[in-house]
Every structure is written in structure tokens, then in C-alpha cells.
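Sequence in, structure out. Go.
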Amino acid sequence: MIRASLDEFKISELLSLGAHDRYWRVRVISETSSTQDELKTELVSNGSCVVTEYQSAGRGRLDRSFQSAPQVALLFSFYVEPTRMAAQGWIPLIAGMATASTLNEMTESRDYVTKWPNDVLTDYGKVAGVLCEKFKDGIIVGIGINVTTEIDDLPVTSATSVLLSSGLEIDRNELLPQLLINFLKLYQKWESGADLTPSYRALNSTIGQEVRVSLPGGAELAGRAISVGADGELILESGDIVSVGDITHVRTLS
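Output:
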């Protein structure tokens, strides 16, 4: 398979079609330890974005490592400064929504859904993850998507890629600008005070499910997920509220 390299000019050109390049400024680099760490070395402002062909020390949620072969994944981070910092827990949810909806658009399907708080899944497994961290006056959002990853290059058996789940070879130079555009639309709605809960529920696979929650420190909760709160936290039918935790969907036998 011939894989197209990331092309900074093409990405910027597609962003410019709707004048989105006024907000987003994308820099392509061949290799880095982490795109999030790369942003920390820059004079960042709203819309600063770094994307790489390969990162040697990528991180996922809960300090898990995120590894990918070169040129098969879309690995990028961007910086935003929300005015609604008190409700910043919504940022990873918005990033997950933007990722799932963009993949659905580009594959002309409804196959991609979010798992609270921000993983993106298909029936074949996990295709993307999001990691957010506070930095200066804002938040760095890191996203990793397995795009054309073949089965032998998947890091774990529970993972998949866009290629394996859809049969389509998506151009990363088209995927990145569309995802940034979709994120910005949702983000600006949220910044204006809009309630994104209905949109999140429509793309989410966790709400309505029986779940098991592994909390930091080793404690566990179990119950039915019924909604998300004002800060993006997961609400269980029992009344328990989860702001940080590892979620497992529990399959019940009928």
C-alpha cells in the first residue's frame, strides 16, 4: 500500500476554503516524542496544532502508552483556551464527538461512536483515543486515530483502524482539516452556552449501558449509565457521579 505523507500545504489549503485557517494553524513534523510535548515548547495560542508522522513516546489516558507505526495513524495535538474553564470536562467529550462524526462523514456510515469519556469505537474495536491536559491558560487536546493501520501493526487486539473497519483508505490530509473544522463548530456552540448533551448522547455508546467503573486508587463502581453532567461527568442510575475512571461496558446475557 502506498501511503500519502502528511502535506502541510494541502491541509492548510483545505482549512482555507471556509476561512478556518484564521483559527487553525497546523504545523507538520516528521517525528517527535509527543505532539502534546511539542506544543509545550511553542508560543501557543488558540488554534495552534502540531501533527506528526511518528511519535516515539505517545501517551493515552491514565498514562497508558500509545504507539503506532509511521504514516498509518493521524497523530496530532492542538491548543484551545476555553472561556468556560469551570466546565472544561466537556472538552474531551467534544473532541470525541468531533472525531466520531468526522469518521462517519468520511466513511458515509454511522459505524463510529464514542465511549465515555472520549474513546471512539466501532463494532470491530477502538479506532481512536483522546487525551486532554491543562497547559498555561488553556487545554492541549491530543488525538490519535488508527487510519490505515493493518492488523499486524495494531498495538492490542481490542484495537482496529478505519481501513480495517470500513475497507476505505482515508487520506489523512483530508481527515485532519475536516476534524478540526467539526471540532471548532461544536466547541464554539459549547462556548456560546449551548447544551451539547443531546448531540453527545446521539453519538455515545455508554449511556444506557450497564458499566463497570475502575476508579483511580483501585475502587470500583457498577451500574447503569444514564447521562452526562454539566462538567461532562458520567452519571449512574445509582446517583454516583464519575469524573475520572476507566469504563467497561458490561454485556448482559438475555
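Check: Residues 13 and 22 are 12 Å apart (CA to CA). The chain has two domains: 8-201, 206-249.
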